[in-house]
Each structure stands twice: as C-alpha cells, then as structure tokens.
Amino acid sequence: MMERKQLVLVVLFVVLVAGALGMRNYFAPGSVVRRQVFEAVASFKSEKILGVMSKVSRSYTDQWSGSYEGLGAQVQSMMESYDGLTMDVDISSVKMGDGEARVELAFVVGGRTQAGRGDILGTELDPCRATLRWIREEPGWRLVETEALDIPQYREELQRSRRP
Asked: What's the CATH architecture for 29-161?
C-alpha cells in the first residue's frame, strides 16, 4: 500500500515538473512572438482584417514608405481581390533583444480568382522572405517594422521604391 502511494507521488511530481518546463517554453518571449505570427496568418487565411491588424503596432513603418494604415489597406485589398487565401509560413529564426524580437521567415501566399487558383506572392521554389521587427507593447508583442522584404514577383519594384 505504501509503495503504491509513493509511486503515485513520484508520477505526480514528474508530471508537475514536465508541466512547469512546458509552461516555461510556452511563455518564453520567442514562443509568444511565434504564436503572434501564426495567429496573424490564421486571421489572414480567414480574411479577418481586424485579427491581422491587431498584431501590428500603430507606429508600424517600413523602408517603402509604409505605415499602419498603408499595410492595412494592402491586406484589405488582397482579401477583397482573392478568395480562398492561403499562406504557408516557415519561421527560420526568432532573435530576442532588449524588448524586441527579429523574426526571419519565408512565405508563399496563394488564392483563387475567377481565372483559377494560383500563387499570388512567391512560389514553393522561390518564396518571399522577410525580416520583421516586433516590440513588446501593451497588451503584448506587435509588429513594428518590416526591415527586409523580398517578393520575387516585385523585386525590381521594391528596390526602386525603397527609401534611402
């Protein structure tokens, strides 16, 4: 009887330690930022503009004269122009700094028009690439800047329109 009680206590202890270690990873800033990215992607696929923009800081900027409002307009335009939006994202790294995170990722956006289904931005062989800077704001982590962006279909246009 006593051995069974000890076994139960050992199992309970192991479960608690494993849970604590899992929670530590779940709440680690890098994991939180990853979840924010994937929540924004899920909102994009569901064509929920407010879900996407809730992950973007009102002080968002980029090298192509982009702003929070401009980014929102581009996302909304894409949602209106295509049905069945898809977005495959591969996060290659999340580098944490002092109250900020840099996320390097590759992505492909697909969708459907009356002409059929296809890739809109990037392809499986030549995906889009981006480096995104996230900062900790109230109530959480938000995208504040696109530091680097490569969209194969728009490479020349992105180079020409980049601010010095």
From this structure: Roll (3.10)
- Give residue limits of the domains in the chain: 29-161
Taking the C-alpha atoms of residue 95 and residue 30, their distance in angstroms, rounded to an integer, is 7
Note down pLDDT in tens along the chain; length 164 residues: 556 655 555 555 455 454 544 444 444 667 889 999 999 999 999 999 999 999 999 999 998 878 999 999 999 998 998 999 999 999 999 999 888 999 999 999 999 887 777 778 999 999 999 999 999 998 889 999 999 999 998 888 888 887 76
Closest C-alpha to 87, from 135, 57, 47: 47
Q: Which residues pair with 135 in a beta bridge?
A: 100, 142
Q: Amino acid letter at 60? A: Y
Residue 18: HSE in the Cβ half-sphere, 13 Å Cα cutoff: 6
